[in-house]
Design goal:
single chain, alpha/beta, Rossmann fold, 5-stranded parallel sheet, 6 helices
Length: about 130
């Protein structure tokens, strides 16, 4: 299963990046895409019209969904603390996405290079950008 980060959804829904579109469509067709509440919220925040809200809701509705529980939040804090100890500053939101991906055994599809600073996190990269 692939947890698709906000950066990928923006390319797919708003910027129409063909490499991202083709990669994501393939994952969607194989029913391999998942999401979490933070990503849903970030995407909704970026909507500038009712039609964009509908597009986001329609894209995310059929996906596997996991909620962040207390353990996920604690794990996110741990990941952020470990990054700080290595001299990196990571957003807690990115760490939360990573914590849920670790828990579920999912890969993260992202363009956000901060995820590369999380040891052991499996990343899915587009074949061509």
């Amino acid at each position: 299963m692939v947890l698709v980060d906000t950066s990928i959804w923006i390319e797919y829904l708003d910027r129409f990046n063909p490499a991202i579109r083709d990669e994501l469509i393939g994952l969607l067709e194989r029913d391999e895409v998942a999401t979490v509440g933070l990503i849903v919220s970030e995407l909704r925040r970026g909507c500038r019209s009712a039609s964009q809200v509908r597009a986001v809701v329609e894209a995310l509705e059929p996906l596997q969904y996991r909620e962040a529980d207390r353990a996920a939040w604690l794990d996110a804090g741990q990941l952020a603390a470990e990054a700080s100890a290595r001299g990196h500053s990571l957003e807690v939101g990115d760490c939360l996405v990573a914590a849920i991906a670790f828990r579920e055994g999912w890969t993260v599809f992202t363009l956000d290079r901060d995820f590369e600073r999380i040891p052991g996190l499996k990343l899915h990269r587009p074949r061509v950008i």
